[in-house]
Every structure is written in structure tokens, then in C-alpha cells.
Amino acid sequence: MSIRPGVFLPLSHSIQARVTLTVAVVSVLVAAVITVGLCLLIRHRTESEIFRETRRVATEWIGLMERGQVSPPMATARVPLVQLVDSQGRVTVAGPMAGDRPLSTVRPSEEDRFRDVTECPESERCVMLTAGRVPSLQAWELLKGEPHFVYVGTDEPPVLRGHRLEFLVGSGGALLAALWTWTTWRATGRVLRPINAIGQRLSEITANDLSLRVPQPSGPDEIARLARAANQTLGRLESAVTRQREFAAIVSHELKSPLTGLRTGLEEALLYPEIDARQAIARSLPAADRMQQIIDELLAFARLRNTPCSSQPVDLGALVRAEAAARTTGVPVRARIEPDVRVLGNRVQLASIVTNLLLNAQRHATGLVDVSAERIGAQALVVVLDDGDGVADEDRERIFEPFTRLEAGRRLDPDGSGLGLALCRAIAVAHDGSLCVEDSPRGARFVLRLPLLTG
């Protein structure tokens, strides 16, 4: 097994590029809306302030006109352009900066006496002004009834001339959108940099070298948790592959001896005609039986580890009592069973655990084997205790490894495969339980723990 080296995605497939492009589009839209709204707001407020001032000056000047006398123009610093124009378009009175040409040709009516306009003569600057009509009564008293118009205005501010305002605000919006886009690109790249490093390291890992680990950022964020999960997975994978290699090596070693004996016997029958073929075959059968036993136990062990077992309610106490009663040969077995010790599991597999433990205990016991089934809290407890020599502390875990056989086991059971206890523990783990060797005054004390069936 190998992991194919990673290939970097083109920019169009990059998360960083896609996120940045999305933010750029949104930024441009938001900046455009802000620009348009800000331009309209600035233009409206500026024009409102100017026209409010021009209308105020025009209203006050018209109000100061008395019978037979027109007061001087009320020009101010903010409103320097003031004119009084008759109906023929002649400037009657004007401020010093207004000139002798009418500022506008707008003629407000009696119903709408004031109008705000912006005049932009050709090749001249624009003027923002208020055109006001002198009331008819004052026109009769003051100006012999001829309609007169007041023009009060000022030069258009530079910010409102042409598209200068839109250009300035638009430039600011474009700069803001560019800043958002650049910040998003940098931030996304910084966030994705650990992920790229993880992907690069994963592409370097092969089945021949599972010791590599991905870079693990500090902190509790999602990327750090991803790196930790990846390293934990790689650790479990390395352990599993290591166990498989060791298991394959042990299987090869265990099968080598019977296979060699079988081959030797068959070759002798072929090379030496004087050897009786039936006798040669008969001498080879034990080696074949040995191989078959190992293969059967290996298949059961592999099937148990890779296939979930079917579960049903099992009266564990009755099962232990039946298995103990079946041990009619060898060292006596004494059973102590509590009532209603029920678990959920596969009856055949649980029975194989009890059988293997009892056979192992009888093999090592000198006078008696005790087996018990009881309830301890939320667990069912099966204890098999013999009065033999026991198991050394350093060997209590090793005996559950496949093909591990201690010296005493080889002496008492020369034909054993070393898979019995490994298979028992695998069944216990498959049932969410445990199997281990615990301390005892004498002999070996095997303890099987399984979850009790509740409800």
C-alpha cells in the first residue's frame, strides 16, 4: 500500500483563490453601494446647505425692500452673487461680484416664488443659486408693478464640479475593496498553510515507512484537531501494520515446521521405493493435521477480528455450569454460579472462551480447578482458578499474543498452536469485555469481564 504523492491544485481549484474571488466580488458590490450612497449623501447635503443659505439671503433681501427704495444687495462671504433683474432681463441692482449679466433666466411664478437651480453657462463655472420673485404688492409700490426677480447664488464648490466627487469616493471604495481582497488572500493563505503542510506530509507516507507524522499546530482550533486526529490515525495504522507483519512472520514460522515434515516424508516415499507408501502417508498425516489445526484457528481468529458477531441474550451462568459439567476427565472442576448472570453476545463464541480457559486450567492444575460466574456492579465476572504454578508477572500479557507459548505450555501440550488464549481475548474484546490474568495466592487466575444485560 502506498499513498500517491500529492499534486497541487491549479489556482482555479484552490480554496484560497475561490474564497478570495468571492470576497473580491462582494467587496466590489459593497464598495459600489457605499460609493453611490456616499456620493448622493455628500452631494445632497452640500446642495441643501448652499440652497438653504441662498434662499435665506434672498428672502431677507426681498423683505427689506421698502416703498420707493431698494436696499443694497446683501452679499455675504458664503453667498457673494446677488442681483435684482427686471422682466426684460436687465440687471437693476447687483452686488460687486455679480456682474451685469443675469445669473439665470429662470422666472419663478406667483404660486412658486422661489426656485433652486444650478446654472452652467458654456465655458464658465457653474453657479448654484436661488431665484426669487418679488411679490406683486411690493412690485407695485416699489417698481411700478413691473415683475422683478432676485438671484442669489455662489460658485459651485469644487467637490461638486464634474465627476470629481464620484472619482474621489470611487477611488476610496476601490482601495477599500482591494484592501479587503488582499487581506482575505493573506488570511486564507495563512489558515490553509497548515493544511497544505499536512497534505504534503501525507503524500510522503508509504506503507514502507509509517513513522512519519503530519505537522501539528498548537491550539484548540479545527486544523489542530485535524492534525491530531490524523497523527492518531497514522499511529493506529502503523501499529496495525506492524502487528500484521509480525503476525505474518509468526504464521510463516509456525507453518514451516509441519510443512517441512510433510514434505520430507513424501520425498522419502518417492526417493526410496523400498519404503511402504502407506506407511509414509500415515507418518505424514500428523504433520497435515497440525497444519490444518493451525489454519483453522487462524481463520477463526481472522474472522473474529474482521466480522462483527451476532448477538443474543445468553445466560452466562448456565453456560459456565454446562461447560464445567462437561469436563468429566482430568483434574476435577468445581463450579460456583450466581443466578441471573445474563449478557448479550454469541453463545458459541462465549462457550469457546470458557472451554479454552477450563482446558488450560486443567492442563496446569495439580488437584482442582475452580470456576465461578457472578454479578459485580454492571459487569458479569467469570473467574477460572487453578492450583498450578501460575503465570509470571512479565508473561501475563505475553500469553495472549498469537503463537506465544511458554515453556510449561510446550511441555504439557506439545501439539498446541498458541492461538487459544489470543482467540479468547479477541472474543472478549469483540463483546466489549476484557480477559486478563490477575493476582492469586496460588496458581493462575483468569478473569473474564462482560457487560451485564440490562432491561
Question: What is the makeup of the main sheet?
Answer: 5 strands, antiparallel
Mean pLDDT equals 81
Rg value? 51 Å
Low-confidence stretches: 1-9
Strand content: 15-25%
E-strand count: 12
Q: How would you write the strand order of the largest sheet? A: 2-1-5-4-3
At the first level of CATH, the class of one domain is Alpha Beta
CATH topology of one domain: Heat Shock Protein 90
From the N-terminal CA to the C-terminal CA, the straight-line distance is: 46 Å
Tell me the name of the CATH homologous superfamily of one domain.
Histidine kinase-like ATPase, C-terminal domain
N-to-C SSE string, H for helix and E for strand: HEEEEHEHHHEHEEHEEHHEE
Structural class: alpha+beta
- CATH arch. level architecture of one domain: 2-Layer Sandwich
Count of separate DSSP helical elements: 9
Shape: rod-shaped
The helix content, as a percent range, equals 40-55%
Description:
It is a single chain. This protein is α+β, with helices and mostly antiparallel strands and 455 residues long. Among the domains are: 67-155, Beta-Lactamase (2-Layer Sandwich); 222-305, Signal transduction histidine kinase, dimerisation/phosphotransfer (DHp) domain (Helix Hairpins, Orthogonal Bundle); 310-451, Histidine kinase-like ATPase, C-terminal domain (Heat Shock Protein 90). The protein is built from 9 helices and 12 strands. Strand 11 and strand 12 form a beta hairpin. It is rod-shaped, with a radius of gyration of 51 Å. The two termini are 46 Å apart.
